Structures are given as C-alpha cells and as structure tokens.
C-alpha cells in the first residue's frame, strides 16, 4: 500500500500517545482496505500440492538423517528409489515403508530381549 503524494505520514505531536497514533493508522488502513476490489479481499491461498517424488536430500530431511546416510540406504536397497533420466527420486511411500519396517524390527527385537 502506498500513500498518495498529497498525503503526509502523521508525525507524533507532543500531546499524542502511541495508542492514538496507532488507532489513526489502523483507521486509515481500514479505509484503504475497503477500497480494494472484493476479489482481492476474498482471495484464498491455494494449497501447495503434495509432492510424491522427493530428491534424496528432501528424503533425508524428512527422515531427519544425513544425505550420505540416505544415499547409503538407497544403495543398500533399504529405501526404494527410481531413476528419471539421471535423476534419482524417492517415493513418499518408500519412506513410509522404510520407517514402518524399522519400527517393526525394533518392536520384534524389544520383545525378544
């Protein structure tokens, strides 16, 4: 939002308080917002589409582990991945499957101990 060339920004006079100045600015803001077209006032942010294929770095972030460890898990076949040309991508379900296997293995080990 901009101020017209003819308008000046009100300066705090000696008798004004911060609250009065803020109230005045809010009133001006309300007037400016009411002058906007209804289309801009009712605009709703579009949700960001969920990504299905992640880079190895993004998968590492999602797992909260290092990139090198994630590459090692991919190479060992612990986390399934696909190649698209020269790009390696990991499906979100592969990450979920890996974490479910980890939890299952640890639960089995805890029962045996």
Strand content: 5-15%
Q: Spans of 5+ residues with little confidence (pLDDT < 50)? A: none
Mean pLDDT: 82
Q: Give the domain tally.
A: 2
Biggest sheet architecture: 3 strands, antiparallel
The tally of beta strands, per DSSP, is 3
Class based on secondary structure composition and strand pairing: mainly alpha
Radius of gyration: 28 Å
Order of helices and strands: HHEHHEEH
> How are the strands of the largest sheet arranged?
1-3-2
What separation lies between the terminal Cα atoms?
66 Å
Shape: elongated
Q: Name the helicity range.
A: 40-55%
Q: Output the number of helix runs.
A: 5
What can you see in these coordinates?
By secondary structure, the chain is mainly alpha-helical. The chain folds into two domains: 10-41, no CATH class; 53-101. The chain has helices spanning 18-34, 38-41, 56-63, 67-75, 92-112, and strands at residues 53-54, 82-84, 87-91. The chain has a three-stranded antiparallel beta sheet. Strand 2 (82-84) and strand 3 form a beta hairpin. The radius of gyration is 28 Å and the shape is elongated. The chain starts with 17 loop residues before the first helix and ends with a helix. The model has no long low-confidence stretch (mean pLDDT 82).
């Amino acid at each position: 939002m901009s101020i017209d060339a003819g308008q000046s920004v009100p300066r705090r006079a000696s008798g004004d308080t911060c609250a009065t100045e803020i109230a005045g600015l809010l009133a001006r803001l309300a007037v400016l917002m009411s002058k906007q077209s209804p289309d801009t006032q009712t605009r709703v942010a579009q949700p960001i589409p969920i990504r299905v294929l992640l880079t190895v770095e993004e998968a590492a972030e999602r797992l909260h582990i290092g990139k090198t460890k994630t590459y090692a898990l991919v190479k060992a076949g612990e986390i399934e991945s696909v190649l698209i040309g020269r790009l390696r991508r990991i499906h979100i379900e592969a990450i979920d499957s890996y974490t479910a296997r980890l939890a299952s293995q640890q639960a089995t080990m805890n029962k045996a101990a």
